[in-house]
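I'm stuck. Please check this protein.
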Amino acid sequence: MEFKVLGPIQVANERLAYTPSAPKVKQVLALLVMRANQIVTLESIIDELWGDHAPRTAVTTAQTYIYQLRKDFVVELGEECGERIIVTARPGYVLSVPEGSLDVHNFERLADRAHACSTAGDAEGTARWTQAALRVWRGSPLADIPCGRVLQDYVSNLQEKRVSTQELSVRAAMDLERYRDLITELRSLVMEYPFNEWFHTQLVRVLNKAGRRVEALHAYQEARVLLRDELGLGPSHELRRAQQEVLGSAP
């Protein structure tokens, strides 16, 4: 059994995949998955679903969502699912799953290997493990769920870890002087994270290293205009320094 949250939420076994259709049932499942093998209190479920505007029937309704999940697990994934996976544990419930069944844990394990290689000065290993970690992702975390304030904290944290791993991957590739290979990747990253100046800076640098000075200056100007028009900011010292590196690289 696999539980996937790095993209649209999904529960799958070797035969088929299941995703709840009701939005709030999805939210409950997501909260259980993000706290797998830990007690998720009924209070946390209610906070996620309704925040400060919980109805009088919140407890009963939340328990109904748990019942619906158990029922769906049995119908969609087999009799062995249900009570065995979602366990009642006062004051709430536990999603009881084996190690390695959550994509988020697999991502974190691979990212940890990449960081260990980076600390050891192993650029090849860092590049290999960061790419393996990033391949686990299928899109934005919990992409098909209207997250409440509890899940939103998890989503923000996962996004930060993903950006950190992407930055580590770029650093490793630059250490290995794979400049041309990085151009397409960095162009995609600056589109995905338009206000991340570090990615803009590296794009300017790799274009320059690849001998594409005009494109490097154009990338700098695009970043400068974006920061000015959208945020009212000038380019950072590092971004300006990357531009000077391009101008200083003329014969």
Summary: The mean pLDDT is 93.
